[in-house]
Amino acid sequence: MKALTANRLTDGETVFWRKGQWVERFADAEIFDDEAVAEDAEGRAKAALTVVVDPYLIDVVESEGLWAPLAYRERIRALGPTNHPQHGKQALGGDDIVALQHAHGTARSSGRVNLIKRK
Known about the structure:
alpha+beta
């Protein structure tokens, strides 16, 4: 299964493809079960680079009826850059947080990521 993602040009926000347009929440993303259909959507998105930067397909996994990005990096992108609930997509809560809590390999307690600053 695949989803299509990119960064929006106007503000750099991570966006996801849904039926020919970009949406902000991963929970609203279109999930492709056909590789050819996914690649066709990616081609159409790349043809419209005036809206986004470098669209690409990501692998997704279903767990307990919810979808989440398979790669840890993409899970972070799906929620936004911060672990503070008043910022980024985490402030929206709901299905985005629940999907990440139940996806394989995520922290089931909160679904949040603690960022560590290196010296």
